[in-house]
Design brief:
The complex is a heterodimer of chains A (112) and B (316). Chain A is mainly alpha-helical. Chain A contains five helices and two strands. In chain A, strand 1 and strand 2 form a beta hairpin. Chain B has a five-stranded mixed β-sheet with strand order 3-2-1-5-8, with no helix packed on it. Chain B has a five-stranded mixed β-sheet with strand order 4-10-9-6-7, with helices on one face. Classes of the chains: A mainly alpha (112), B alpha+beta (316).
Chain lengths: 112, 316
């Protein structure tokens, strides 16, 4: 009986994962960004250290100096200290694939 | 198949194994009784007798009395089974083990867990926080020391709840058969961040546990890179009066020991994963992640924060 219930729950969660292609970047954002940024779609991301990321897709400038293009976003996520030396945003040790996933998700946040 | 983090319907150790079948039994009895009552109630609603019962039905009619007798017997049977089973389970789980393989002194505080590993030789003792490692198959005695307010120590898949009461030392114990990470949680409301007062019990094979124990006994190495050295100075001025790092000039005891911070999977008593991003955000502004925690926001520049992070990641 407990196994059956667990199986049903696991299947439900599995369905959910297949349905939502943003589950992986959401989990990454929860793990790496949530303590500093408020991010729509990630419930625990309510940080107040850095800027809120609602509407980030329509913002023109990244880190106060780079045009907000997909390539620049990826570069900034991978090497924030190179873009903004001495800034509060640390190098998080993301892999390129993780940076791509987060950048793709942020590109969907077009409502301020 | 892994159980949900705080699932109490699966067990991973002998202590929980004594309780879980009883939990299922009581649950099943409760559901059956509830259904029987509901069916009888529905039957009475659908087919009302249309008139009040004669008051003499119990005293004068043996047929009515039989209903009550059978009702009493049917109720008493599961209750007696539950009573005997509960006493037997309590007998197996209540007493602490006579010759524990490991003795821990755990002091819950608002809102984290101090964990001291006791040993006959003082050189084998050490202190850590929020992550308890034990060897599989070992019976572990936990002495729960009351700290600031009442807390309760609960690892659903390994043990029941035991309160930690100021001024008292309560005994409980843990044993895990299956290697894994088991979430523990404060189970007595203790203040604003009670819900974010969690910990993990990591059960691992004896050889892996011994490696972990030896690593925890080490002191922190002096920082080598320039950034880490600057970070160590920032740490001394901002953190060291509450936090300890063995081997460095930091000996505070009112907050978690950070000597082996990077060996832990979570930070802030189970609140955040131990990633560089979370660590930076937590150090800079703990009050946004865990409002009411006793750690204040740190007024650090970006440079200081980066240096501090460079130092913290050396605490392996």
């Amino acid at each position: 009986m407990p196994r059956l219930i667990l199986l049903a729950l696991t299947l439900l969660v599995a369905c959910d994962r297949h349905a939502d292609r943003h589950a992986a970047p959401r989990a990454l954002i929860a793990a790496q960004c949530a303590a500093c940024h408020t991010v729509p779609g990630v419930a625990i991301a309510r940080g107040q250290v850095g800027p809120p990321l609602a509407g980030i897709a329509r913002r023109t400038t990244l880190a106060g100096r780079l045009p907000n293009t997909p390539a620049n976003m990826r570069h900034f996520l991978l090497h924030p200290q190179a873009v903004q030396p001495g800034g509060a945003m640390p190098d998080m040790g993301l892999t390129p694939a993780q940076a791509d996933a987060i950048a793709d998700y942020l590109a969907t946040l077009d409502e301020p | 198949m892994s159980a949900p983090p705080l699932g109490y319907l699966t067990s991973a150790g002998e202590r929980a194994a004594a309780i879980v079948p009883l939990t299922w039994f009581v649950l099943a009895v409760s559901v059956i009784v509830g259904m029987v009552v509901a069916v009888l109630l529905l039957a009475a609603i659908v087919h009302p007798r249309g008139r009040a019962l004669p008051t003499a039905i119990v005293a004068g009619d043996d047929h009515g009395l039989a209903w009550i007798k059978w009702g009493l017997v049917l109720s008493a049977l599961p209750l007696i089974v539950t009573l005997v089973w509960t006493m037997a389970a309590l007998g197996r789980v209540a007493g602490p083990p006579r010759s524990p393989a490991l003795v821990l002194d755990v002091t819950p505080r608002q809102y984290w867990w101090e964990v001291r590993y006791d040993a006959r030789d003082p050189a084998d003792r050490f202190v850590t926080a929020n992550e308890i490692h034990i060897a599989t198959g070992a019976r572990v005695l936990v002495r729960l020391h009351g700290g600031d307010v009442i807390h309760s120590f609960w690892v659903p898949q390994l043990s029941g709840k035991t309160d930690a009461i100021p001024g008292q030392t309560n005994l409980t114990w843990l044993a895990a058969d299956v290697p894994g990470r088991y979430r523990g949680q404060c189970a007595e409301f203790c203040g604003l961040e009670h819900a974010k007062m969690a910990f993990e019990v990591v059960a691992e094979p004896p050889a892996a546990f011994e490696r972990w124990r030896r690593a925890q006994l080490q002191t922190a190495p002096p920082p080598s890179s320039d950034a880490a050295q600057r970070g160590a100075r920032v740490f001394q001025s901002h953190c060291a009066s509450c936090h300890a790092v063995r081997g460095a000039r930091a000996a505070g005891s009112t907050a978690p020991d950070l000597t082996h911070l990077m060996s832990r999977r979570l930070i802030a008593a189970g609140t955040l994963p131990n990633t560089r991003g979370s660590l930076a955000g937590w150090v800079r502004a703990p009050q946004t992640s865990k409002p009411g925690a006793l750690m204040p926001d740190q007024q650090l520049t970006g440079q200081q924060l980066g240096d501090m992070l460079a130092y913290l990641v050396t605490l392996k």
